Amino acid sequence: MKVLANDGISKSGIAALEKGGFEVITTKVAQEQVANYINENNVDVILVRSATKVRKDIIDACPGIKIIGRGGVGMDNIDVDYAKSKGIHVINTPASSSESVAELVFGHLFNGVRFLHDSNRNMPLEGDSNFDGLKKAYANGTELRGKTLGIVGIGRIGQATAKMALGLGMKVIAADSFIPEVDVKVEFFDGQSITTKVVSQSLESLFKEADFITLHVPAQNGYIIGEKELEIMKDGVGIVNCARGGVIDEVALVKALDSGKVAFAGLDVFENEPKPEMAILMHSKISLTPHIGAATGEAQDRIGTELASQIITLLS
Question: Which controlled-vocabulary keywords does the entry list (predicted)?
Answer without folding.
Answer: NAD, Oxidoreductase
